[in-house]
Amino acid sequence: MRNILIIGAGRSASSLIQYLLKKSNQENLHLTIADLSLELAQRKTNNHKNATAIALDIFDENQRKTEIQKADIIISMLPAHLHIEIARDCIVYKKHMVTASYVSDAMQELDAAAKENNLIFMNEIGLDPGIDHMSAMKVIDEIREKGGKVILFESFCGGLVAPESDTNLWNYKFTWAPRNLVLAGQGGAAKFIQEGTYKYIPYHKLFRRTEFMEVEGYGRFEGYANRDSLKYRSVYGLDNALTLYRGTIRRVGFSRAWNMFVQLGMTDDTYVIDNSETISYREFTNLFLPYHPTDSVEIKLRLSLGIEQDDIMWDKLLELDILNPNKIVGLKNASPAQILEKILSDSWTLQPNDKDMIVMYHKFGYEINGSKKQIDSKMVCIGDDQTYTAMAKTVGLPVAMATLQILNGNITTTGVQLPINKEVYLPILKELEEYGVIFHEKEMPYLGYNPDKIRG
């Protein structure tokens, strides 16, 4: 049998493991599911005869190397910074490797060694990064093949709550790591290019500069800019595109509301709050407000944010119970961001029957035969339940499919890479449609950023 070692059995591995187990008899596969928690790994085997669960501490060098030597291909579903030791072992023992994570500098340094050993190190083959690369490159390549030149590329993606589970004023629940949301946009200005001009949005302005989009059947969404939209400019071959903008999707109104936390300073992760474990939610909120001998925390908060008591923004804050004097933070040496994450988790944790939703939206503007055209490509994926979420499907399935394609010799390009070649994206996008990950592409009139000029 062909042995696949899966390291990390967390939430994103559910659909990946289910897919490979379903194919295991037909494809002659045996899965070793390794996690620090043996119990978690055992749960993910579903008692399947072609799966073995093991407890694995990746910092135990001997055990890690022993398991890697036994496998034909390694899937790492660990946090990105933990991939590199596994990748180095894969070079030594000549094993292919697949991850859903961004290519780090340390991983990129292994490119030459991977090629020398005829190895495929496939990265960024989850959702975002992953499905975004593949679905974008498919359309970009098609435009080029018919003689067109891409002048505009916008790409948005978001993990949201499905409409039937959308039960709060923020139209949002945590579908992935809550910390990532709380820290979103920090660490430098958002950078992109529009109509040939570089644009920068500093963090304190990020959530007030949004783009809007409609998705048929699901209504209106907004998008705020990712930190570096130009990271993939050369990768996609779009060095001459006039507009390149990548962003994160939320429901309309979320960004304006989130901006309240940014302006107050509650998303700061650079310092620790004294006595954080003993303070109440109300005391935490008051930390960011000026002293006043008579005004209540409510009045100070509204004055500080410039909102009236009949503003929906006020209702959104009240819904989170951040003024409750009886709820205690209970976290030692916590930063404001960590405390905010705790408060939000009270309200935004998915309930057992809740479903999540992934929305992806690409916009392509191109020139062909002297005229400008546009293609909009949209995808919505709804989760099945709390195990097989839309996030688990869209992150895990492409990883599983790429693993099988590599094992079966259908992907042959060696080295550290992204899924931007046809041999990778064509079969995987086609197979993803069977699992409800379907892109609807539509020709549109090209609008750009100055519709009047084009119409005139």
Q: Mind explaining what this structure looks like?
A:
- The protein has 456 residues and is an alpha/beta fold.
- It contains 16 helices and 16 strands.
- It has helices at 14-27, 38-45, 61-70, 83-92, 105-108, 111-116, 131-145, 178-182, 254-264, 281-287, 297-305, 312-319, 336-348, 390-407, 422-432, 451-455; strands spanning 2-7, 29-35, 51-55, 73-76, 96-99, 120-122, 149-161, 190-194, 197-201, 210-215, 219-225, 243-251, 356-368, 371-382, 415-417, 440-445.
- Helix 1 (14-27) runs parallel beside helix 14 (390-407), helix 7 (131-145) packs across helix 15 and helix 14 (390-407) crosses helix 15 (422-432).
- The longest helix has 18 residues, at 390-407.
- The model has no long low-confidence stretch (mean pLDDT 93).
Sheet with most strands: 7 strands, parallel
Give the termini distance in whole angstroms.
Answer: 66 Å
Q: Percent range for helical residues?
A: 25-40%
Radius of gyration: 24 Å
- What overall geometry do the principal axes of the alpha carbons give? globular
Beta-strand share of residues: 15-25%
| Mean residue pLDDT | 93
Strand arrangement across the biggest beta sheet:
3-2-1-4-5-6-15
Low-pLDDT runs of 5+ residues are: none
Number of helices: 16
